[in-house]
Amino acid sequence: MNDTKIDVINFNFYYSGEKALNNVTISIQQNMVTGIIGPSGCGKSTFLRCLNRMNDVISGIKVEGEVLLDNEDIYASNVDVVKIRRQIGMVFQKSNPFPKSIFDNVAYGLTINGIRDKNYIVEKVEKSLKDAALWDEVKDRLNKSAFDLSGGQQQRLCIARALAVEPEVLLMDEPASALDPKATLKIEELIQELKKKYTIIIVTHNMQQAARISDFTAFFMMGELIEYDTTSKIFTTPSMKVTEDYITGRFG
Amino acid sequence: MERHFDEELKNLKELLLKMSILVEKAINYSIKALVERKTKLAEKVIKSDNSINMMEIEIDDFCHMLLALRQPAAIDLRFITAAMKINNDLERIGDQAVNIAERTREIIKEPLLKPLIDIPLMATLAKKMIKDSIDALVNKDESLARDICKRDDKVDDLNNQIFRELLTYMMQDPKTITRAVELILVGRHLERIADHATNISEEVIYFLSGKTIMHHMEDIKKQQ
Ligand SMILES: Nc1ncnc2c1ncn2[C@@H]1O[C@H](COP(=O)(O)OP(=O)(O)OP(=O)(O)O)[C@@H](O)[C@H]1O
Ligand SMILES: [Mg+2]
Q1: For chain B, which residues lie within 8 Å of any Cβ of chain A, measuring from their own Cβ?
Q2: What domains are defined for chain A?
Q3: How far apart are the first and last CA of chain B?
Q4: Fewer CB within a 10 Å sphere, N or C end of chain B?
């Protein structure tokens, strides 16, 4: 049996009175890739952002229930949100490098966390870029602007930036949706490598992608978790008719 | 929402239906040739097997295309993989019909050993099993498919009965051995046909429910 990394229990989420997540209960397994699928507007991104409290910045939100990271409730009152976001990193749909050099983009998380040790930073940047499978492509131009990179490279740069602060969990919201097939494949391969060290939760609209890369799949609809099982079960013999209809493209 | 893909799945169903009609016909003619002692009809079954083989290839190619290009999941995936296995079972049934036709060619060279009663009855049961298994597929009728699996025992019983009866002939008069063995083989071919029809029903159940009942998997799982 696997270990649970994140336990979400009876979780509700509201945007200014509007319920966006309804009684979600799910155990995310450590060192596994969990794919989140579901029709547009069903709450995938909302759910992902709840896992590292990225929604906190939005005014009027309300949270009920628990999100346990290694059995500690991340919504408890004494929790250091900055620390939570370091433990649970995030990569977005559109790569969003800062208008800085490649090196500074990766070093950013370290410097804002107060790390000043030059040697440590240099080492860490190299290691993160290697883990993100980008090092060989950029090692000779680390001081060039991040915007000179291709879309796929920028996305891997953002992954490297997330990895630099040594997270335990990596949240990815459609990380490959803006990339061509080759760059997508590279990200997918990278995810398979990364899961050895990290727990990965990925939102994707691409059904084949979810089937290819995730070990577990969670199907959401209208703010509810409809079905959660191994990916092979979901894609061969799902238990719920709605899941079947969704993944076979009969709606959504 | 009606998908373009649904049209293709419907075409696949129709191909299987066509193929099943061909193999039912082959059984029909091979048994008719035996009962009515018609060499020409037996030869016709043997010759027409090629069209069943060609159809098997056509269905296989079509399934490969669907798998590669449509990347089906869940019930669509189960339908296509079931279709590939059903296709194979139908083709094997065609082969068994040819075997019966070949036996028939020999059997009718000699006088009849005994009136044919159980063999035509077995053939009727087996044909119905094929027809119903394909109906179960087309109409998504899981209970019909489960019923067919039960009927297989009846065919097995008849086969054993034929065997025992012909054994007594052979013991009483060794000169009947060649003719008796030919008839025993016909019974055996029909019994295999019913087995393939049972396989088809099991595929239909898997396609519809996602449950494997092959090799008594349901019973084994219950015990666990
Ligand atoms: N900042 C916000 N304020 C208010 N409502 C929001 C906000 N963000 C999302 N919502 C609403 O919450 C619901 C879930 O949105 P969410 O973005 O989580 O969906 P999604 O599953 O990620 O969709 P998509 O696949 O289109 O990205 C939607 O009805 C959306 O309108
Ligand atoms: Mg979203």
Answers
A1: 1, 3, 5, 71-78, 210
A2: 4-95+168-247 (3.40.50.300)
A3: 40
A4: C
